[in-house]
Amino acid sequence: MALFRRGAKDRTAQDETAAAEPTADRDDAADATGAGAAAPAADEPAGTAPDEPAADVPALPADRSRGPWDATEEVPPGPRIDLGALRLPGVQGMELRMEIDKKSDVVTAVGVTLDGSTLQMQAFAAPRSEGIWDEIREEIGESVRKQGGAVDDVPGPFGRELLARLPVRTPEGRTGHRPARFIGVDGPRWFLRGVVTGRAAVDEDAAKRLEDVFRRTVVVRDGQARPPRDLLALRLPGQEDGAVPKGAAPAPTFDPLTRGPEITEIR
């Protein structure tokens, strides 16, 4: 299911409800990349009026006093992994997985697995004058419901978030549901999205370590004018750009609900 709508020149990422155990601890995160159909060709000028939030779901401003951080801000010290648009804190025992677009060989997402649960993260360009998380939540919720899932818009540690039950097909051919949490934070000209799957999607204690990774992440927004929701480029650790070197690793189809070839780093 397409969780964002993209313009004609933008990549489209599909979230397919692939066959999987509904209670599996290590599921990949649901995809949420895309751009609005009516998005302008570059960052919107200051003064653009923001969309009105849904009347029954009041918007809560994100408190970024403890993160996630912008690269231009005074970031607390600590070791971080440079992935281009994202700098992730190094956490003992975490497994790092890079998602790769098969057609372009470009790194499009990063997954962090801790204690059997996974946090997938992506960063996107956003307008100067407004955030995009309110609109994105509405689109994700609509898409999940159309696929036969259920979703609740609730307050969380980063503001409003979505608790979803994604429909899946079990190995026995039955229809099951996989829990997932969609979290997001609007920053200065960027939006950081995370999807939590596994036990951490339903257990507050199990979620704390992954939430801490999300909170301590630094977003690096380049100075280029970009359309809102344009995916900010990621790269493999040690690489200078987002292109995957030929022969470095097989490039899987970008379907985060289906496990495939991956590049992993254990820290």
Would you kindly provide a written description of the structure presented here, covering whatever features stand out?
There is one protein chain. This protein has 267 residues and is mainly beta. It has a domain at 69-238: Protein Transport Mog1p, Chain A (3-Layer(aba) Sandwich). It is 10% helix and 30% strand. The protein contains 2 helices and 12 strands, in the order E-E-E-E-E-E-H-E-E-E-E-H-E-E. It has helices at 133-146, 204-215, and strands spanning 69-70, 80-82, 86-89, 95-101, 106-114, 117-125, 150-156, 159-169, 175-187, 190-197, 218-219, 263-266. The strands form 2 sheets. Strands 7-8-9-10-6-5-4-12 form an 8-stranded antiparallel sheet, sandwiched between helices. Strands 1-11-3-2 form a 4-stranded mixed sheet. A hairpin with a 5-residue loop joins strand 8 (159-169) and strand 9 (175-187). The radius of gyration is 17 Å and the shape is globular. The two termini are 33 Å apart.
Strand content: 25-35%
Number of strands: 12
Q: What is the topology, as strand order, of the major beta sheet?
A: 7-8-9-10-6-5-4-12
Our count of helices gives 2
Unreliable residue runs: 1-60, 242-267
Class based on secondary structure composition and strand pairing: mainly beta
Distance between the termini: 33 Å
Q: Assign a percent range to the helix content.
A: under 10%
What about the largest sheet? 8 strands, antiparallel
User: Please, what is the average pLDDT?
Assistant: 74
Rg calculated over all Cα atoms:
17 Å
What do we call the CATH topology of the domain at 69-238?
Answer: Protein Transport Mog1p, Chain A
Shape: globular
CATH class of the domain at 69-238: Alpha Beta
Order of helices and strands: EEEEEEHEEEEHEE
The CATH architecture assignment of the domain at 69-238 turns out to be 3-Layer(aba) Sandwich
